[in-house]
Amino acid sequence: MKSEIAKFEKKLKKYLDKERFVHTQGVMYTAAALAMAHGADMEKARIAGLLHDCAKCIPNKKKWKLCDKYHVLLSECEQQNPFLIHAKLGVAIAKEKYGIQDEEILSAIRWHTTGKDNMTDLEKIVYIADYIEPQRDKAPNLEWSRKVSFMDLNEGMYYILKDSLSYLERSGRTIDPATEKAFHYYETMHLTKRGKEKKNHE
């Protein structure tokens, strides 16, 4: 498996700019650390983390063509916001160019940008790792997000989604319905946990 990852890294380096490749390595290592902390499959986390942005640096015009070629169906929101396309297209690229067949890995790549409700641990790990990896330094409450994510993936999802939605709203960017749905799902889990903790302390 290590030789596979080294092979993927060498290939991927040709398709990403320097900054994106450094970010990608950060996501791979952070995903492995989160998997280790939460008893998830570290190798799958490493591969999903490494390949999560494999379609990111493709020019938008080529992204449209590749979506047609690989029969990638785009939502209205994705059609209007090309920056969202790389997650779905990344699944096709991971299959075709890197030979990835594992559905868990592919699904983690698919949902790493918007998130969704009721995610698997691997999906959560890659989503969170993308947000908290060491190169990230601009997000609000980053220190807290990092700390809480290593203790509880669901709490990590809640705080990261909360901050992501605030940022999207402030900057006037389009919010994918999947992200809103994900936030409400993890907010409910957060409030339920808080309620139980409060009850236990009474």
Q: What's the rounded overall pLDDT mean?
A: 94
Which shape, going by the Cα principal axes?
Answer: globular
Query: Treating each run of at least 4 consecutive H or I residues as one helix, how many helices?
Result: 11
Whole-angstrom Rg: 17 Å
Q: Would you identify the regions where 5 or more consecutive residues have pLDDT less than 50?
A: none
Number of strands: 0
Most strands sheet: none
What order do the helices and strands follow?
Answer: HHHHHHHHHHH
Q: Please identify, by name, the CATH architecture.
A: Orthogonal Bundle
Determine the N-to-C terminus distance.
50 Å
Proportion of strand residues:
under 5%
CATH topology: Hypothetical protein af1432
What share of residues is helical? over 70%
The CATH H-level superfamily is: Hypothetical protein af1432
Give the count of structural domains: 1
Written description of the protein model:
By secondary structure, the protein is mostly helical. It has one domain (2-201): Hypothetical protein af1432 (Orthogonal Bundle). Helices cover 72% and strands 0% of the residues. The chain has helices spanning 2-13, 18-38, 42-51, 60-69, 76-80, 85-98, 103-110, 121-132, 142-151, 153-171, 177-201. α7 (103-110) packs across α8 (121-132). The N and C termini lie far apart (50 Å). The relative contact order is 0.12.
